[in-house]
Design a protein that fits this description.
Number of domains: 2
Bound molecules: heme C
Oligomer: single chain
Number of strands: 0
Helix content: 40-55%
Order of helices and strands: HHHHHHHHHHH
Largest sheet: none
């Protein structure tokens, strides 16, 4: 009986050792044998994860206290030409396909009387109750991405300088009572992004590679330190049963 147990122990030790060798070999192959990219994403994903953590990869929101006072209102009016088929910005503030935009900067999100907002815009209002400069900047850059389910059928204004001029123009139309903040050094080029300064989307993007690069991380762990190899071996008998 005890001899049998002894035999089992020896067998288990032998199997465990064999398993560790196999796992280690697979790990070493994965590390050094990179030409046939069975999963070409590995190298790119690691690079992305590194880039995501770097300050250079994070696009800062504009420093409104600096850019608004010097913004080109005439250029903003020209950009607004892309909006006039659906919006007006007159004091009468009539709704068209889209809500009247007189005084929209600093106005309540989905807050213009008499306009039937989409459910997506109403849900957005619960999270972002005011059209702040930052909210307008992100929404107008890519409406459908920033406000999921919006019925504003507009692709967005990609160029940051055009969006800034447009927002300055909107501010001049019924929103001059909404204050321009003081200049914020943490938003100026070269500043280390303050906690919370990064917009939501880049944070998500930075998190994604961490999840998908899990196999890449597991490989160095197996070869790097004995502890994970033991853990892997400990799992194996359970799997074999
Ligand atoms: C094709 C029509 C269309 C165009 C073009 C368009 N919009 Fe809109 N816009 C809408 C609609 C419709 C809504 C309501 C969205 C909702 O309820 O989801 C809206 C909503 C908005 C809101 C939110 C207003 C509020 O009261 O909450 C802002 C701000 C806005 N648009 C600005 C602009 C600007 C600036 C432009 C031009 C760069 C523009 N839109 C171009 C149709 C349009």
């Amino acid at each position: 009986m005890s001899g049998n147990l002894q035999f089992n122990k020896i067998m288990a030790a032998g199997l465990t050792a064999a398993l560790v060798i196999v796992v280690a070999r697979v790990g070493v192959d994965a590390l050094y044998h990179t030409e046939p990219p069975a999963k070409p994403g590995y190298a790119v994903e690691v690079a992305e994860a590194e880039a995501g953590g770097g300050a250079a990869a994070v696009e800062l929101d504009p420093d409104w206290g600096t850019v608004l006072p010097t913004a080109d209102l005439a250029a903003g009016e020209k950009v607004f030409g892309k909006c006039v088929s659906c919006h007006n910005v007159d004091p009468a503030n009539a709704n068209m396909t889209g809500p009247g935009l007189w005084g929209v900067v600093g106005r309540a999100t989905a807050g213009h009387a008499g306009f039937a907002y989409s459910d997506g815009m109403k849900a957005h209002a619960a999270e972002a109750p005011t059209w702040t400069y930052d909210q307008l900047y992100h929404f107008l850059g890519n409406p459908a991405k920033w406000v999921k389910g919006t019925k504003m059928g507009f692709a967005g204004i990609k160029k940051p300088e055009e969006r800034i001029a447009l927002i300055a123009y909107l501010h001049s139309k019924g929103s001059t009572g909404y204050p321009i903040p003081a200049p914020d050094p943490s938003r100026q080029p070269g500043a280390a992004p303050a906690a919370g300064a990064a917009p939501a989307q880049p944070a998500e993007a930075a998190a994604a590679p961490a999840v998908s690069s899990a196999p890449a991380k597991a490989v160095p762990a197996v070869t790097g330190s004995p502890a994970p190899a033991q853990a892997a071996a400990a799992e194996a008998p359970a799997a074999a049963q």
